[in-house]
Automatic annotation (TrEMBL), chain A:
Belongs to the binding-protein-dependent transport system permease family. This is Carbohydrate ABC transporter permease. PROSITE patterns: ABC_TM1. It is found in: Cell membrane. It holds the Pfam family BPD_transp_1. The chain crosses the membrane at residues 45-67, 106-127, 139-161, 173-191, 212-237, 271-290. GO terms for cellular component: plasma membrane. The lineage of its organism: Bacteria, Bacillati, Actinomycetota, Actinomycetes, Jiangellales. GO terms for biological process: transmembrane transport. It comes from Jiangella ureilytica. It is a multi-pass membrane protein.
Length: 305, 306
């Protein structure tokens, strides 16, 4: 249901292609006429500008307020970019807890990305290219699990982890999130679409299975590894409910649960927002560099922004 | 289990000449490669999915004796005014959030459909909230909706009553809806934009030469082409709305006076504040049924269309 593959529309030129050379089009006048008129363009520009303002305002507020001295939250002065103060950042970056939460978030995200990519590509390869008993049943029951909401399995997963002593541990945090049906599905589809000849040739060469996986499959699936990797990273970086129930002690919180706890403890707004900026900057930087992977990943897997 | 049985069945080195040995070797490798994921699924997806159904009929709490309680949890749920309230609030929230975010997505997709200078920048801006953590969004919007915050000032400026929407029992859900639209419309925009690309130019050009104005072209050419994508979006957005949690936890804690108390929040509350895992599982079951109903409606409607 959620696996809808879409091209990265953000980068694509929709419609008029290179707008400058409209005259060279085969479609001539009609081609041009589909473009909005001068008034249409003005209206569009105004609407877009307003929408961008509304979209960006919360980010602006987050950054500006994080640079305010404590207590300066009264409108409209709060939204002016001065006076600036790095008080909140000194507090946040000096606090051991925030550094610890950042480390926890990094461990949670990076280990999960590596493990999901490795396990899902192995399984996807087997599902796409190998014949073994029970293959179809296994594959389709994996896919069926995409339909079962995360929250239905939340309580039993927690009980499993809790009985196994995984509360407040990294493995307890990470392990359950590695059962990623969408990742297996995407890997299988991608590897299935690769030309058969490649695999046959490698078989005839007498390549060992492991060598074949490492030196042939992995390089071939690089594009999907990148897209899926970015998506899994984003998902874990922003994940909230699972870290909230498994990482209960304050030194096992991630940035999201840590910031939520600061917020709940009525910490000063500038401090909470400075923490939010710290949590947001890595994602923002990555988004600037590899936007295509974000849009592909999120649209390919459908849910969970 | 069959896995280990097959894996040890052919330990002897396979001779290239023997087809059967090769088959067995292939099966062994295949199972070996699938095994880690299979174990993870058994422990954390299949097992818990079944357990989630079973737990709903017990009074499980960690570290205590567990006994069967039959339909007690479901009966309790039916008699629990708070459950009905959470269900109603979740439905109201979804009925508002789903159409509004789809409408915003559609509007934005149409605005950034054609190429012009700066279009990529606008698309990037509109997608930015989608990659932002809901917790961060919740923290910032808590301030935006606070008494004396920007939203209240804006309302005051246009002559509407000022005040904090988050401490108003009727306005707290609309406030959460606004956050939902802000965080979700970029996703819908992207899906619709991809569909808009696929509409053949010739269709619209032909309509143009026939004298169809912009509204007619949208109504009779663009909209029908977008219909499957809009439907897909409606299902995804409904599922996402049913499962709203992060913003409720951060912004309202279910309040004021439980007026933003929704299903997943109740599930969390029952399981991890009252440690009533049985009752929480019953609520999980209700959520599952709701998701299933939405998927079924999708199936039926799409089936009829084809």
């Amino acid at each position: 249901m959620t696996a809808l593959s879409t091209p990265a529309a953000l980068d694509a030129d929709v419609g008029a292609g290179a707008a400058g050379d409209g005259g060279s089009s085969r479609h001539g006048r009609a081609y041009r006429a589909l473009e909005p008129s001068r008034t249409g363009r003005t209206v569009r520009a105004v609407l877009l500008f307003l929408a961008a303002l509304v979209t960006l305002f919360p980010f602006y507020a987050m950054v500006v307020l994080s640079f305010k001295p404590t207590g300066a939250v009264v409108m409209p002065e709060a939204l002016l970019p001065w006076p600036l103060s790095t008080e909140a950042y000194e507090h946040v970056l000096g606090a051991e807890s925030v550094l610890r939460w950042t480390l926890n978030t990094l461990v949670y995200s990076v280990v999960s990305v590596v493990a999901v990519l490795f396990l899902a590509s192995l399984a996807g390869y087997a599902f796409a290219r190998k014949r073994f008993p029970g293959k179809e049943v296994m594959f389709w029951s994996f896919i069926a699990m995409i339909m079962v909401p995360y929250h239905v399995t939340l309580v039993p997963s927690f009980i499993v982890i809790s009985e196994a002593g995984g509360v407040n541990t990294y493995w307890g945090l990470i392990l359950p999130t590695l059962a990623n049906a969408q990742a297996v599905f995407l890997m299988r589809q991608f590897i299935k679409s690769l030309p058969d000849e490649l695999f046959e040739a490698a078989m005839l060469d007498g390549c060992s299975e492991w060598r074949m996986y490492v030196s042939m499959v992995l390089p071939l699936i690089k594009p999907i590894l990148a897209t899926l990797g970015v998506f899994v990273f984003l998902w874990h970086w922003n994940d909230f409910l699972w870290p909230l129930i498994v990482g209960q002690s304050s030194d096992m919180r991630t940035l999201t649960t840590g910031l939520a706890s600061l917020n709940a403890e009525n910490a000063p707004l500038n401090v909470v927002l400075a923490g939010s900026v710290v949590a947001f900057v890595p994602i923002f930087m990555a988004y600037l560099v590899g936007q295509r992977y974000f849009t592909e990943g999120v649209t390919m897997t459908g849910v969970k922004g | 289990m069959t896995v280990s049985g097959t894996a040890t069945a052919s330990r002897t080195a396979p001779r290239p000449a023997s087809r059967r040995a090769m088959r067995r070797r292939e099966a062994r490798i295949g199972l070996l490669f699938v095994l880690p994921v299979l174990l993870l699924f058994l422990a954390f997806r299949f097992g818990p999915a079944i357990a989630g159904g079973v737990l709903a009929f017990t009074d499980y709490t960690i570290g205590a004796e567990t006994s069967w309680t039959g339909l007690d949890n479901l009966r309790r749920m039916v008699d629990d005014p708070l459950f009905w309230r959470a269900l109603r609030t979740t439905l109201i929230y979804s009925v508002l959030a789903v159409p509004l975010s789809i409408l915003a997505a559609l509007g934005m997709a149409l605005l950034v459909r054609r190429s012009f200078r700066g279009v990529k920048l606008f698309r990037s801006i509109f997608f930015l909230p989608v990659v932002t953590s809901l917790v961060l969004a919740g923290i910032v919007f808590t301030w935006i909706f606070s008494a004396g915050g920007p939203w209240s000032s804006l309302l005051g400026a246009v002559g509407l009553p000022e005040g904090s929407w988050l401490s108003d029992t009727t306005l707290v859900v609309p406030a959460l809806v606004i956050v939902a639209v802000w965080t979700r419309f970029g996703f819908g925009m992207l899906i619709l934009l991809a569909r808009l690309q696929d509409i053949p130019r010739e269709l619209e050009e032909a309509a143009l030469t026939d004298g169809a104005n912009a509204w007619h072209r949208f109504r009779h050419i663009v909209l029908p082409e977008l219909k499957p994508a809009l439907f897909f979006l409606a299902v995804i957005e409904t599922t996402v709305s049913f499962q709203v949690f992060d913003t409720v936890y951060v912004m309202t804690g279910g309040g004021p006076a439980q007026s933003s108390y929704m299903l997943v929040f109740q599930l969390y509350d029952q399981a991890f504040r009252y440690f009533d895992f049985g009752y929480a599982s019953a609520i999980g079951l209700a959520l599952f049924v709701m998701t299933l109903v939405v998927a079924l409606i999708q199936r039926l409607t799409l089936g009829r269309d084809r």
